[in-house]
Hints:
With 70 residues, the protein is mainly alpha-helical. Helices cover 50% and strands 0% of the residues. It has two helices and no strands. The longest helix has 26 residues, at 16-41. It is elongated. The N and C termini lie far apart (67 Å). This is DUF2281 domain-containing protein. Residues 6-69 form the DUF2281 domain.
Amino acid sequence: MMAALTLYTKLETLPPDLKKEASDFIDFLIQKKSKKEKGKSHKPVFGSLRGKIKLSEDFDAPLDVFNDYM
Length: 70
């Protein structure tokens, strides 16, 4: 793990435009980490979609476009 002082020293050697780019990248990494943590906390509950998906009555019936092949 890199020490905060080492990171600060490296950051201070950069010109202003690269400091801005480094800051933007750090913000991106923070946002990426928070999205990843949100995704981990959600676990689907078995049966939670019951009643949400409907299949038509003729779901298993042959399609009309294939009549020539039957």
